[in-house]
Design goal:
mainly alpha
Amino acid sequence: MFEKMDMALLCARAKWNGFVDRLLHEEKGASDIVAIMLIIVIVLAVAVIFRDRLQSLVKDIFDRADNFIKETK
């Protein structure tokens, strides 16, 4: 079992290293990185703007899940 886990970890590491290498060495990578960073900034800005609403939404979802679990016991 540990051999399978080791092989899976090695494969994942090789894929990650290949991804990073392609990302850093492709010519179109620079524009892709800028686009990805812009998307991340926009998502973070939206999260900050709607922070209170998101917190109340997540709290409501977890409260409903707790109530559902308590009802099924």
